[in-house]
Amino acid sequence: MPTTIFKIRLLPNTLFRFQNKTVKATVAVRPVPRYNLTQGSDHHGPAVRDLYRIRVIIMPESSEEAGQKLKRARDRLGLRYRDVEQASNSIAQRHGNDEFSIALSRLSDIENKGTVPTIYRLYSLSAIYRLDFQEVLSWYGVDLTKLPGDATLVELEKTHTIQFSRLTAGAVQFPLSLDPGIDLRRTTHLSRFIQKWGSLPLMLLNGLDLRNQRFAFIGTEDYWMYPVIPPGSLVQIDETRRKPASTGWATEYDRPIYFFEHREGFICSWCSMDSGNLILQPHPSSMQAPLIFAYPAEIDVIGVVTGVAMRLDPAKKRRGRFVADPEASRGR
User: pTM of the predicted model, to two decimals?
Assistant: First the structure.
């Protein structure tokens, strides 16, 4: 970081803080021995006693607060800097990685100067202080419960599975009370019948059978099952139902939709069996040709789609041209 010269009235070797438009910063002040302006000798500006060299170290205020929380956790356990250093060395030796070690000077910087520790040192501190690693990350502004939500900001063209692990910490906003006069047999503007909102701890969702459920995102350019499953939809998959059904439905809405994995990616589709081959059948409106795979050598059935969450956005128009070539559609 480049050094900046300021004319200020301060004692040498001190620390002070200033507030700019965006962040708080710690500023180290050292005298510059080449200059010594006497009172009134500088006609170009206000008279000063010394020139000081300012080294600006930008650090978010949250990092300083997090360092103080770690310090309080150490104080509660009665640990000295040397104790933490030795404990971190033991962790580093166990993992065969020196990145887990925390030197005395580094620990002091983390606690008092807001230095952000590496992921390895943060792990060591969490282990030594008996802290929840996910909570410690949140002290530094990394909230793992927001990871799936942040992922939705990035649109991916190819259909893919979602591999975020279940998070039991945190809470979600949930309607706690509905108007008793609501008639769920009729189409209803549900928001008008919500009487009370509240936070529902995610751990209460453990009662749901999430172990046998997986989730996948339909690519923003995947029109294979459009309009039954539009691009950009989120689908729920039951892994316990992996045998393709040949009969048992009356309409296309009753026909099971399966989620498959093949050598070039994933695809959500109807299917049928024919002489050891699995035929993937798109929705007629997609204007795409069926795909044929040797089963089970070339394709794997992950499960049947049991739920769909989709967004109806008329502002996003469907693409004007469709891929009718099977080779071109295999990457979906």
Answer: 0.56
pLDDT in tens, 207-241: 556 555 688 888 888 899 999 999 888 888 888 88
Fold entry, domain 62-139: 434 Repressor (Amino-terminal Domain) (1.10.260)
Over residues 184-206, the pLDDT tens digits come to 566 455 566 677 776 656 555 55
The rounded Cα 20 to chain-centroid distance in angstroms is 29
Quick one: CA dihedral 187, 190, 192, 193, positive or negative?
positive
What is the chain's Cα-based Rg? 30
Q: In angstroms, rounded to a whole number, what is the distance separating the alpha carbons of residues 261 and 316? A: 28
Total residues found in the chain within this entry: 332
User: CA quadruple 300, 305, 309, 314: dihedral positive or negative?
Assistant: positive
269 Cβ contact partners less than 8 Å away, ≥ 6 residues apart: 224, 225, 257, 258, 260, 280, 281, 282, 291
Fold type of domain 213-329 = Umud Fragment, subunit A (2.10.109)
